[in-house]
Each structure stands twice: as C-alpha cells, then as structure tokens.
Design a protein that fits this description.
The relative contact order is 0.15. The chain contains twelve helices and 24 strands. α1 runs parallel beside α2, α2 packs parallel to α3 and α4 runs parallel beside α5. The chain is α/β, with parallel strands linked by helices.
Length: 431
C-alpha cells in the first residue's frame, strides 16, 4: 500500500491513544507462563501483539477474546512441543520466546522477513542461552534459529546490553521458572534501561520476586517460582502517540490524545518534555495530552536512549525547528527493523530535510519554512519510519508518497485512520 501524504495546514480533534504494544506483548507472555487463567484488558491489536498471540497459542496457551479483553489459560513452564514458530517481523517476540523455547526439545524460528528481522543479530542472547545449557543452531546470530533445550539451568549468567535490552528481558521472564537460583550480570552498557523497568514491573505484577541492582546491571532471581494468574490493564501507547503529537506540533492544530498516563513507566513519555523543550504549546493533565500547534518550533539537544521508539517522530518535528537539533545516544536504532539512522536520514534528505548522521547521533538542521517533498520514498518495512515520514509529508510543500505504508500495522494499524479523523490529507492506494 502507498500512502499519498498531502500538505495539511490544520489538524483538529480528539483521539484515544492505542494500547501499548510493549505492555501487551509482555502481559500475553506472562499470562502464558502462568499456571491458570489471566485476563488482559484493552490489549493492543497490531502485528507484533498478534505474533505473540499466535505463537503462545502454538505453544499451548488457550485464548478467548473479545474487543476489550483477552482471557489466557497458560502453559506454565511446560509449553507444547512444536517444530516451528513464526514470529513474523516482531523482534521482541522472537527474543522473548527464544528463552521460553529453552523448555522445548527442539524448535526452529523461521525467517519470514529476510530483508528486515532476518538481518538483525541475536548473538548476545544466543550466548546467554548456551550458558544455560541450551544448544542453539544459527547463521551468524541471525534467523533461522533452532533451539534444542528441555532442561535449561540457572546459575551465573552474563548477557551483553550493548545492542538491545530485549536480550536481558528475555532471560528475566524465564529465570524465575528454573530449578536453580540465577544471577544475571549485564556486560558493557545497557540500552533502553527504562524498557527493562517495564519488564520488571510486569513480572512483579505476576507475583515474581527479582532483586535488581539500582543501575539495572545485576540481578538475583530465586528459582522454582510460579507466575500467578492475574488481571492486567494495558495503558495507552506513548511511542505511537508520539507521531500523532509530532504531527500536531508541526501544523496549526488543536489536538487532544486521551489515555496517556502521566505516571507511566514508558520511556517514551519523555516526548512530552521534548516537545515542550521545542516550544510546543502542550498540556498533560488527567492522562490527557492537548497540543495547540502553531508551526513554530525551536531546536534542542536530546538523549534519545530515554525514548528509543519515539526518536524518529521527534526528529521529524525537529526538521521544522529553528536551529540545529541533536539526538544522541541512539546507536541501538541501527539494529531495528531497518537501520533507523542511515535509512531514515537518507529518506529525509530525499524529502528535502537537512540532516546528518553519526554512529550514535542524528543531527537536524531545521528548516522552519518547510521542505519541498514531491518525491516517492521508501519505508524500509519499518513502522516507525512510516509514521515519522508521514509527519514530514504533512508539512512539506508538495507532499510525499510513502511506499509499503501498510507496514505501519506492525504497531499502529489505526495510524492513518486516526490522522484522517483529525483532518490530515492522506490518500491510501493499494500498490
């Protein structure tokens, strides 16, 4: 599908934030790892959450659902043996389930997206699983990956945090179920610490005890624990909403987004502060964000590691700011669905933006007068790229045509629908 994004001078209206993809996938997983029945209220419906739903069903979870909730009867630490699992293009789902697969005699994770997830490395998690006595067959750390487990063991485990926090989260989900106590030490740096905080929050809600050091680099986990069946409520999603808020910031607007918790542990909550620092007229009260955009933005410097999944949306806003903005500490963006630094910067340049890249930085020389647009650009199969480029297209002189725009469904299937309801001039065409 192509998205033909036309210049849009004004956005106005109220939408509900979609439910958090990160929390939904985690709640689905701990529901499956529980012995008993859990209920997840307001689960996200996206390609990622659908991938987790499909895979835990394959592994023996029984799921009943309606529009507002999902009831899960879990399999505990005894997943049903399967020969293959297909996580689609969902990296977090793959990594979380690689540790769960350690309880199985043999399972292969297939390579359904060779040009996207198939290019992403998983060596650091593979190394940790091997320390647990699990045999892993792989191709230079990439899919397809075959795991031969059955009796993973605890003890002393190390994991690198340089590439992704998802490797650590994966181990934290499974370690409490092992017979032995486990100590996990994170090597090097740990990316996206705030997202690890979300993992720990969810695990604690299920009655699991984990002792974490203050810097989140060391963990003591008693063995022989069980996930308790619980009721969970999924909060609104900041990463997806960041693109809506960025679109409101770069246009004349009066836009309200509901269900964005003020006390959320989502790191991307930081976009509220980022947009305020850019001079956006924004209020955040009673879990409601209200933006009155006037197309006037100022540049700033921002540590992107605090809001990884919203960096591209904020870069899109900075394209139209007065001055030079710098988003630093963002190297882990290179290891997502695409290289979200090089690939995204190249597409921004096609649209007429003045941007530079460093190994771990994106530098934006703002153009308050706008950018030319008038070109077709490549989404690189990446939902975050699609959302951010749409923001740029709305403020461009001649609009943008975004190829492969249907991949936005990975996290935010209603993205274009929500923008259209606010008055965005977007035409969706089947390619």
């Amino acid at each position: 599908m192509k998205a033909i994004v036309k210049p849009t001078p004004r956005l106005e209206g109220t939408i509900n934030a979609l439910s958090s993809k990160n929390y939904t996938t985690r709640y689905l997983l701990i529901g499956a790892l529980a012995d008993g029945t859990s209920t997840v209220h307001y689960p996200a419906h996206s390609e990622d959450s659908d991938a987790m739903r499909r895979c835990i069903r394959d592994l023996g979870a029984v799921i009943e659902e309606d529009e507002e909730k999902m009831v899960i009867r879990g399999f505990g630490k005894s997943p049903k043996p399967v020969s293959e699992l297909n996580v689609g293009n969902a990296g977090a789902v793959l990594r979380f389930l690689m540790s769960v697969a350690a309880f199985l005699p043999e399972v292969t994770f297939v390579n359904a997206y060779p040009d996207s997830l198939g290019k992403r490395p998983h060596d650091d998690l593979i190394d940790s699983l091997q320390q647990m006595g699990v045999e892993v067959e792989h191709r230079e750390g990439k899919l397809p990956i075959t795991i031969r487990g059955g009796k993973p063991r605890g003890g002393q485990i190390t994991v690198s945090g340089n590439i992704s926090s998802q490797f650590l989260s994966s181990l934290l989900f499974v370690a409490p179920l092992l017979e032995e106590d486990t100590e996990i030490t994170v090597l090097h740096d740990l990316k996206s610490k705030i997202i690890v905080g979300q993992t720990l929050e969810v695990i604690e809600q299920a009655g699991i005890r984990i002792e974490a050091s203050e810097d989140l680099m060391h963990y003591k986990i008693p063995g022989k624990q069980q996930y308790k069946p619980q009721n969970y409520v999924v909060q609104g999603d900041y990463p997806g909403s960041a693109a809506i808020l960025a679109a409101a910031a770069v246009t004349h607007s009066d836009v309200t987004v509901l269900r964005l918790a003020e006390q959320s542990k989502q790191g991307e909550r930081a976009v509220i502060d980022v947009l305020r620092a850019m001079g956006v007229d924004l209020t955040h009260e009673n879990d409601t964000v209200h933006v009155r955009g006037n197309q006037t933005l100022k540049a700033g410097e921002f540590d992107g590691d605090h809001f990884t999944d919203a960096v591209l949306a904020m870069v899109a806003a900075a394209v139209f700011a007065d001055g030079t903005s710098r988003f630093y500490n963002v190297e882990n963006l290179r290891y997502k669905e695409c290289d979200r630094i090089t690939d995204f910067v190249n597409e921004l340049r096609k649209a007429g933006a003045d941007v530079e890249e460093r190994q771990s930085e994106i530098i934006v020389h703002g153009r308050p007068q706008g950018v030319a647009g008038g070109v077709e650009i490549n989404a690189h199969y990446d939902h975050r790229v699609i959302m951010a480029l749409t923001v740029v297209g709305l403020r461009s002189e001649q609009g943008l045509v975004i190829n492969d725009a249907h991949h936005v469904a990975k996290s935010y299937p209603q993205y274009f629908e929500h923008l259209l309801s606010l008055g965005a001039q977007i035409e969706l065409v089947q390619a």
